[in-house]
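Supplementary Methods S3. Complex input for the pyridoxal-5'-phosphate-bound model.
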Amino acid sequence: MTEGKIWLNGSLVDWDDAKIHVLTHALHYATGVFEGMRCYKTVSGSAIFRLGDHIQRLINSGKAYFMDLGYSKQQLEKAAIETVKVNGMEECYVRPIAYYGYGKMGVNPLPNKVSVAMAVWKWDEYLKADGAEKGARLMVSAWARIDNRAMPMHAKATGNYANSALARVEAIKAGFDEAVMLNTAGMVVEASAENIFIVRDSTLVTPPTASGALDGITRDSILTLAKEKGINCEVRDISRDELYIADEVFLTGTAAEVKPVGEIDSRVVGDDGKVGRMTKELKSMFETVVHGKDKKFSKMWLVPVN
Ligand SMILES: Cc1ncc(COP(=O)(O)O)c(C=O)c1O
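Predicted complex, serialized as structure tokens:
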């Protein structure tokens, strides 16, 4: 995508004009925080899924880095809607970012101005290559996931993604689709850019945020929908070998949505690596909600663009 408008510090600028200086602080020292949201085409027009929650997480991420974004939550929500609208997108991915800009070099970011931008683009189902019925192939990364002693892991911060990128590239080069990351205690945390769930004995399990997992908005949505369905849910640590004997495994994230997993470290998930019953049910429920076909949750979580 190379056309359209990008919201930059309060103005809508042409795609090619949304440029930064090479001495931007965040480029050198990874002092940025960002979000990823999706705008869906719903039965009653385009709507952004959990807009308020995403903007709140952006503000919270900034707080960890002493970043005053300079815009209220309301103003940022409005900016996201305006950016989707001006680009004439029915469905898109929305990427807000706040970062310490160009000014004074050196590790301390505080002397630099904070900039805020929002871009939108078409981002079809990510991790798609393997078709709907076949799950993704994962490998456990040799890179440990950074944790709360090193970085504020509740913050969706650019710095965290150097660790993610190393794991993702390692997995791709080894012929897998995605990496699963373990924390320094050896427990499963998440994939390089998605939360992870397993199903064992009809119970849905996901690792706690205190183990280093991002407080994912899709993760929260799936836990909420599962509880609504009467599914037993547990938030607890998962060991690497428990992944191998899970009945079902899936990933969640704004970009990836609900992505079934068919194989981990060359071990087939469940009996045959095919998409499991609970994964199918939750994926379908999620799709119903984001497309505005569930009255209760659509009202709760969808913010109309028009
Ligand atoms: C490291 C990581 N974990 C989990 C997620 C899923 O979070 P969400 O569902 O809020 O997109 C993401 C994506 O944003 C991520 O980058």
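Residues 33 and 62 are 6 Å apart (CA to CA). The radius of gyration is 19 Å.
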